[in-house]
Amino acid sequence: MVYQEKGETVAEAILTDSKQGATYRIVGVSFGIAWRRLSSAFESSVKANATHGELEMIYASPPPVVPGIARTYANNTYKLRLWAEAVYRSPLPVVLMDTDTLVLRDLRRAFREEFDVAYTTRPGELPINAGVVFVNQTDAARQFMADWQAVNDQLLVDVHQLVSAISEHAGINQAALLRLLATRDHIASVKPLACSEWNSCDQTWEQLDENTAVLHVKGLLRHVALGGGLDLLAHGVPDNLDDLLSIWNQYDPQGGTACRREAYAVASH
Ligand SMILES: [Mn+2]
């Protein structure tokens, strides 16, 4: 399915991995060629490990630049819209996923819990990460997606609100989700799931084990995974960086990145 947005932006949604008897659908958005290495690794990991999940990839050109609105906010606002539309057309429950993630275990188990929508929580300053969201096919869940978009769109046009929300919650989708949850201005049954298991981010990378279903390749890990050096990064290098990188290397379409942990140890002392 190809669809066009505002005359300029084109998005193409393809069921790239249709598994027989799938019980849920994973949805990922890939923005432009610069994002392909990450999203290809993501796709490979879904094909390998999401035994009961089919995959819909949406390949989109980034939305037009709007004066006064940072590209990242515009991209993420558009991504949320593509996510919502994917939920509306899916015959199955959906896992909305950032495509800078890797699926390490099948995700069906998350749907054993009762919820309309489930999101992932983490320790530290930013209490949630909106890069993995589970959505059942209920009216309340679909309404939640519309409400989430509405809050996001309000933030986008109100610069003052946006600045205060973003400084607390880095990322417009995330800030909007937190705001919607805080105001309880929705009717959905919403369940928190642990990031350590369902969306492992920097705060929980060191807890990675056989129960971890999703690894989020963000921040420092992404920098190194894509070939960046560790020399400038004095802080926050996880002890198990080698393990995280070897996972990345299994799915990287470019065949993996050398581990630089030793080089880092030398450079930093
Ligand atoms: Mn991400």
What is the string of helix and strand elements?
EEEHEHEEEEHHHEHEHHH
Helix count equals 9
CATH architecture of the largest domain: Alpha-Beta Complex
Q: Say which molecules are bound, naming each kind only once.
A: manganese (II) ion
Spans with pLDDT under 50 lasting ≥5 residues? Answer: 265-269
User: How far apart lie the N and C ends?
Assistant: 54 Å
Q: Quick one: how many beta strands? A: 10
State the helicity in percent bands. Answer: 25-40%
Mean of all residue-level pLDDT scores? 89
Largest sheet: 8 strands, mixed
- Which fold name fills CATH's third level, the topology of the largest domain? Spore Coat Polysaccharide Biosynthesis Protein SpsA, Chain A
Q: Give the C-alpha Rg.
A: 18 Å
Strand content: 15-25%
Shape: globular
Strand arrangement across the biggest beta sheet: 1-2-4-3-5-8-7-9
- Give the CATH level 1 class of the largest domain: Alpha Beta
Number of structural units classed as domains: 2
Secondary-structure content class? alpha/beta
- Which superfamily, in CATH terms, is the homologous superfamily of the largest domain? Spore Coat Polysaccharide Biosynthesis Protein SpsA, Chain A
Task: Write structural notes for this entry.
The strands form two sheets. An eight-stranded mixed beta sheet has the order 1-2-4-3-5-8-7-9, sandwiched between helices. It has a two-stranded antiparallel sheet with strand order 6-10. Helix 2 packs antiparallel against helix 3, helix 3 packs across helix 5 and helix 4 packs across helix 5. It has two domains: about 200 residues, Alpha-Beta Complex (Spore Coat Polysaccharide Biosynthesis Protein SpsA, Chain A), CATH 3.90.550.10; about 50 residues, no CATH class. With about 270 residues, the protein is α/β, with parallel strands linked by helices. The chain binds manganese (II) ion. The site of manganese (II) ion (MN) has 5 residues, from loops.
